[in-house]
Design a protein that fits this description.
The protein is built from 2 helices and 28 strands. The N terminus is likely disordered. By secondary structure, the chain is mainly beta. The longest helix is centred in the N-terminal third of the chain and has 15 residues. A hairpin with a 6-residue loop joins β1 and β2.
């Protein structure tokens, strides 16, 4: 990897001299502030095109929900992400690229779904989730507005060279969904499904927004999905899901047991109160077979739950604490957790990301996203919290915009975090042993 670091370092120096500049303000968005080892995508449109871009050009100033998977058989990395002129723009689309040299170079991104430009907008597509079956079939599922209770998806049997006609995968509604099937469910799977379910099936956590009849107010909860038959290579319409921790058993703020300095925000200026939220869970497997879920919340800290029966049932929520029992502080922002050795390794070594700050006097839990810290953790079989985390270590140095909708691969023993920097550049950074040497033993 020494040669790779040198080559990417040169590229970073060149790109640093050619930064995106916000129109009329001189605000520079340089690459390299958040260190990286791999450059997957540098937008053609400048950062300020989020407001002033040419509607006839492909919108690519927003790049987010960055999912990279490693195909060991083909020796290829596949990358998927959501791209647009800006977050929520009418040209949101799903992109795909791949690398045959372990991330050094990447193919030109192709559009799998959605609108390429704002000039002729079609149905937008976003928040994709890829899955690779045992036979090598590559699926990509994504959200489209107005498709009802379901996801749209396609598949490829030739490593992404060609894709099948998209079809709809139906999902089961929850109590909090609108009863009109044309409106559909408000659901987001932001992490990659992992083979940590029963009998090695793909398993994923899903954020479900809404208000059930028995809820006090609208909010967000977590349920879990297991892909029962995906390795049979079904048509998208025939994909079967099993659902766990759903409806009254879903993980929400009402399931929080103890340890939180509860945060009750004031109303927004427009008078609309912020609802309670437990959302965007990420999963790891523990050496003893338990599943551990870490998720962001609206209480001022990440919260966690565990399952002793392959994800069928889950414990009440608790606030994430350090080795001294002190809660880690974190706004309503992504806080992913990964197994250092790979998604299904159950290695006992883990790492997560927090902002290490929260303002309890704020009017919202969705606070600024400043520097991001890595917390290294090791399995603690006797601990009430089964992963014992060390002190935070500075990872992302930007003072703003560190919204890490990330993924993680292990390629020939090298762990790589794939992250969208300022939701603009798409980068990769190696996670080495140096992060795991202090305080987590």
């Amino acid at each position: 990897m020494r040669v790779l670091r040198i080559r990417v370092g040169i590229a970073a120096a060149v790109l640093l001299a050619s930064v995106a500049t916000a129109a009329g303000k001189g605000q520079q968005i340089p690459i390299g502030v958040n260190k990286y080892d791999y450059l997957v995508y540098k937008p053609l449109q400048e950062f300020d095109s989020r407001k002033y871009g040419d509607i006839t050009k492909r919108g690519d100033a927003y790049n987010d929900h960055f999912h990279v998977i490693w195909d060991e058989t083909r020796r290829v990395l596949f990358a998927f992400w959501t791209q647009a002129s800006w977050e929520g723009a009418p040209d949101m689309h799903v992109c795909f690229s791949k690398s045959a040299d372990k991330g050094m170079t990447w193919t030109k991104p192709v559009l799998l779904a959605g609108s390429e430009t704002r000039q002729y907008p079609r149905t937008d597509a976003y928040y994709q989730q890829p899955l690779l079956t045992k036979s090598g079939r590559l699926y990509c599922l994504w959200t489209e507005r107005n498709v009802g209770w379901g996801y749209v998806g396609s598949w490829s049997d030739d490593a992404g060279e060609t894709w099948a006609q998209p079809a709809v995968m139906r999902i089961r509604p929850m109590d909090q969904d609108n009863p009109d099937p044309r409106i559909g469910a408000n659901s987001i799977n932001w992490q990659l499904p992992l083979r940590i379910g029963r009998e090695g099936r793909y398993f994923v956590a899903c954020s479900r927004h809404g208000k059930a009849p028995y809820d006090d107010k609208k909010g967000c909860k977590i349920e879990f999905w297991e892909f029962f038959n995906i390795d049979d290579d079904p048509d998208v319409r025939e994909i079967r899901l099993d659902y766990f921790a759903t409806n009254r058993e879903a993980l929400g703020v009402d399931k929080l047991l103890e340890g939180a300095e509860y945060f009750t925000p004031k109303k927004y200026p427009n008078g609309s109160p912020e609802g309670p939220a437990v959302e965007e869970a990420s999963l790891v497997k523990l050496p003893d077979g338990r599943l551990f879920a870490l998720m962001r919340s609206s209480v001022g800290s990440p919260v966690w739950s565990q399952s002793r029966d392959d994800g069928r049932t889950w414990s009440g929520l608790k606030v994430l604490v350090d080795a001294n029992g002190k809660p880690f502080l974190h706004p309503r922002s992504p806080c992913p957790i990964y197994d250092r050795k790979g998604g299904e390794a159950a290695s006992g070594e883990y790492f997560a990301f927090i902002h290490n700050t929260f303002d309890f006097n704020s009017t919202t839990a969705c606070q600024p996203r400043p520097q991001l810290y890595l917390i290294a953790g090791r399995f603690d079989p006797k601990g009430e919290q089964p992963i014992r985390f060390a002190a935070p270590q500075l990872f992302a140095e930007r003072t703003f915009g560190n919204s890490f909708y990330t993924s993680y691969t292990v390629v020939d023993g090298t762990g790589i975090l794939w992250f969208p920097d300022v939701k603009y550049y798409l980068l990769g950074r190696e996670i080495g042993s140096e992060w795991f040497t202090d305080g987590s033993d």
